[in-house]
Structures are given as structure tokens and as C-alpha cells.
């Protein structure tokens, strides 16, 4: 197993983000009474929006992802027609399902899932243009950017909730800002999850998102969906976490490079360093780039947060959204042994990896 020197970047990021200790800052609200959570899903912004067109969703991907999530939540296979939960006039169909229709709906174990989505082409432009992620809320332009960013990301949240609702998934949008979440130097400092706990307990699927929030040190910042995922994983301890992205997984260099190699398995050591398990690479260099407009850290933050989740003993799957590979990850098919025909990246704790050798 060859250590990757360039992966120290992930270790350094981890050191900048100390593990959050349970304290009075975190209102756990009934969390201890919740049944075990099956999966936390991160919908990558690049996968569900058109990244080259501001504030435009990728409708096809969003429909496919929503359908796959419904399949993953189903308690048994069924070909019954799904009665949707979006009764908005904007759909052009005012025919509202009846109570009998919902009795025939396929049974879903929706309370076993939590969804967090990124912003993609929503929010990043507004945040980057105004410098919201750098703080300075006392400045009029930053304050305006804070408002503009939240308008953008909450509008995307509504679109995602509606797409899930059309698949019969009882989804509820939840904004970290509105729930009272805040940060200290971009690390979560206050997070009331009592409403989240109640939502799960009632059989709903919470849909959270990256958001503009108050920061106790610099006034304001951007709380990324990837950081939210890590925080929720620490509190809810799901069986596995799935990151749905616009590429097949993690590569040793930008995937646009014709020589890029898909990293199928990464092991995380106790000290936070990474090791590539599969495949064995001839070079020890892994190159990760971040887009200039991305105020959340892009793939670098994603991998760093995934590594911290893996240290908790929770398997993390990074896979392309809307593919057969993503469906297999969502349903929990990818467990200890990674199928040869599955394309994606598994990040897991090294002790678990050694146990399967």
C-alpha cells in the first residue's frame, strides 16, 4: 500500500478543522431516541445544476437522482404508480391525488435518510462576487451579497424538495441559517438539530443545503454542504454516506486529463493520512484543483470531509449521480467487497480495509 505524499493536503485541512466535541452548543433534541440512520446523501451541486449557466438546474439528472433515491428507500419492490406530493399550480396539473391514492403508494422507509445538497451554479457567484465567505457583514455590499446568496441557495433547495416530492418522497427543506446554525472561523460552532431530529422521527426526509451563515469571529461565511455532512455523520452515525458528483469518483488528477486514473479505494489512517489501496499507482502524486469561483473548497474539501467521516468507521462512497453505480451505492450494495464492475471511489478507515484483506 503506497502512501501518497501530496495527500498531506488533506491532513493539513483536517488539522484546521478540529473535531467538534459534544457540548451545550449542540442541541441534540431527542437524538438519542432516533432509530439508526441508514444513509446520508450529498447531492453535489455540479451534478444537479448546469455549472456553466447561472441558476439553472439539470432537470434530467435531478429526476434520475430523485427516482433512484425513491428506489433506495423502498421497503419492497413495487410497480405501483407513485402519487406525488408536489401539488403546486406551476406544474400545470391541478389533479390532486386522493387519500386512497396514497394508500396504494409504495412503502418507503424515508426516515432512514438525510439529504444535503451543494449549490452548484446557485449561490457561488453571489458569494464570490460579494466576498460573503470572507466575512465583513458590516459592509453594505457584503450584507447585500449575504441576502443574494441565501435567495439563490434556498430557491435551489425548493426545486430539489419539489423533485423529491414528485417521486412520493416526504421531503422537508431545512436551511442551516434558519435553524440557527453558525460558525467560528468557518467551523460549526452552534447547531441546533432538535428540528432535524423531530423531522426524521416523524418519517420525513430532511433536505439541508450549503448556506450563508453568521460567523462568531468574522461576521459571516459560507457553510458548505460537505462540512454539514461531516457534522451530521458525527451526530447521527449512519451506516454509510454517499457523495453524488458529476464525475465517476476521485481521480489522481483532473478527470478531464486523458491519463487520469480513477481511485477505487482510499484508506484513511488514524493520523488523518491517506493511502491509495486500489489501484496501485506508479507515481505518488495526486493533483486536485479548485475552481476560482468555488467558495467552499470544491473536491479538496469533499475528500477532506469524507476522510474525517471514514475515521468514524463509516464507509463513504463518491460516485457519479444518475448512473447504475450511484443506485448500487444508494441501496447499500457496495459493502465490504467492491465489485469489479462498480465505478466509484470508496473511502474507509484503514482498520476496516485491513479486516477485509
What does this structure look like?
With about 350 residues, the chain is an alpha/beta fold. It has a single domain, classed as 3-Layer(aba) Sandwich (Carbamate kinase), CATH 3.40.1160.10. Helices cover about 30% and strands about 20% of the residues. It has helices at about 10-15, 45-50, 60-75, 100-105, 125-130, 140-165, 195-200, 225-235, 300-310, 325-330, 350-355; strands spanning about 1-5, 40-45, 115, 170-175, 180-185, 185-190, 205-210, 210-215, 220-225, 240-245, 250, 260-265, 265-270, 275-280, 315-320, 345-350. The strands form three sheets. A ten-stranded mixed β-sheet has the order 1-14-13-16-15-10-2-3-7-4, with helices on both faces. The chain has a four-stranded mixed β-sheet with strand order 6-5-8-9. A two-stranded antiparallel sheet has the order 11-12. Residues about 1-25 and about 290-295 have low confidence and may be disordered.
Name some characteristics of this structure:
single chain; 357 residues; alpha/beta; Carbamate kinase; 10-stranded mixed sheet; 4-stranded mixed sheet; 16 strands; globular; disordered N terminus; Isopentenyl phosphate kinase; kinase; isoprene biosynthesis; AceGlu_kinase-like_sf; ATP-binding
Under the CATH scheme, which architecture would be assigned? 3-Layer(aba) Sandwich
Contiguous uncertain segments of 5+ residues = 1-24, 289-297
Specify the biggest β-sheet: 10 strands, mixed
Helix content: 25-40%
CATH fold type: Carbamate kinase
Total separate domains = 1
CATH class designation: Alpha Beta
Please give the count of helices: 11
Order of helices and strands: EHEHHHEHHEEEHEEEHEEEEEHEHEH
Strand line-up across the major sheet: 1-14-13-16-15-10-2-3-7-4
Radius of gyration over all CA atoms, rounded: 20 Å
DSSP strand count: 16
Distance between the termini: 12 Å
Describe the oligomeric state of these chains in a short phrase. single chain
Identify the CATH homologous superfamily.
Answer: Acetylglutamate kinase-like
Overall geometric form: globular
By helix and strand content, what is the structural category? alpha/beta
Mean pLDDT over the full residue set: 83
Q: What percent strand?
A: 15-25%
Amino acid at each position: 500500500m503506497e502512501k501518497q505524499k501530496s495527500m498531506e493536503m488533506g491532513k493539513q485541512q483536517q488539522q484546521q478543522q478540529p473535531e467538534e466535541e459534544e457540548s451545550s452548543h449542540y442541541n441534540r433534541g431527542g437524538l438519542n431516541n432516533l432509530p439508526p440512520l441508514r444513509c446520508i446523501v450529498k447531492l453535489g451541486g455540479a451534478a444537479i445544476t448546469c455549472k456553466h449557466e447561472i441558476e439553472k438546474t439539470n432537470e434530467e439528472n435531478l429526476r434520475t437522482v430523485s427516482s433512484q433515491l425513491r428506489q433506495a428507500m423502498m421497503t419492497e419492490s413495487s410497480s405501483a404508480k407513485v402519487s406525488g406530493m408536489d401539488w403546486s399550480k406551476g406544474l400545470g396539473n391541478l389533479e390532486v391525488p386522493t387519500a386512497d391514492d396514497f394508500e396504494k403508494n409504495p412503502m418507503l422507509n424515508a426516515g432512514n435518510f438525510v439529504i444535503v445538497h451543494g449549490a452548484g451554479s446557485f449561490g457561488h457567484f453571489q458569494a464570490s462576487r460579494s466576498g460573503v465567505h470572507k466575512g465583513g457583514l458590516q459592509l453594505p455590499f457584503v450584507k447585500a451579497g449575504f441576502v443574494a446568496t441565501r435567495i439563490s441557495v434556498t430557491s435551489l433547495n425548493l426545486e430539489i424538495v419539489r423533485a423529491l416530492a414528485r417521486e412520493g418522497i416526504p421531503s422537508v427543506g431545512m436551511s442551516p441559517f434558519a435553524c440557527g446554525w453558525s460558525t467560528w472561523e468557518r467551523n460549526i460552532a452552534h447547531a441546533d438539530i432538535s428540528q432535524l431530529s423531530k423531522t426524521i422521527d416523524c418519517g420525513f426526509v430532511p433536505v439541508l443545503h450549503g448556506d450563508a451563515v453568521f460567523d462568531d469571529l468574522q461576521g459571516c461565511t459560507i457553510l458548505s454542504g460537505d462540512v454539514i455532512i461531516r457534522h451530521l455523520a458525527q451526530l447521527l452515525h449512519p451506516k454509510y454516506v454517499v457523495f453524488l458528483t458529476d464525475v465517476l469518483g476521485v481521480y489522481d488528477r483532473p478527470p478531464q486529463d486523458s491519463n487520469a486514473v480513477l481511485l477505487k479505494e482510499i484508506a484513511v489512517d488514524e493520523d488523518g493520512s491517506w493511502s491509495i489501496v486500489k489501484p496501485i499507482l506508479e507515481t505518488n502524486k495526486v493533483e486536485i484543483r479548485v475552481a476560482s469561483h468555488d467558495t467552499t473548497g470544491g473536491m479538496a474539501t469533499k475528500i477532506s470531509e469524507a476522510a474525517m467521516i471514514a475515521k468514524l468507521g463509516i464507509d463513504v462512497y463518491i460516485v457519479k449521480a444518475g448512473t447504475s453505480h450511484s443506485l448500487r451505492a444508494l441501496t447499500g450494495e457496495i459493502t465490504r467487497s467492491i465489485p469489479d464492475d462498480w465505478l466509484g471511489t470508496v473511502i474507509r478507515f484503514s482498520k476496516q480495509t485491513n479486516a477485509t484483506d
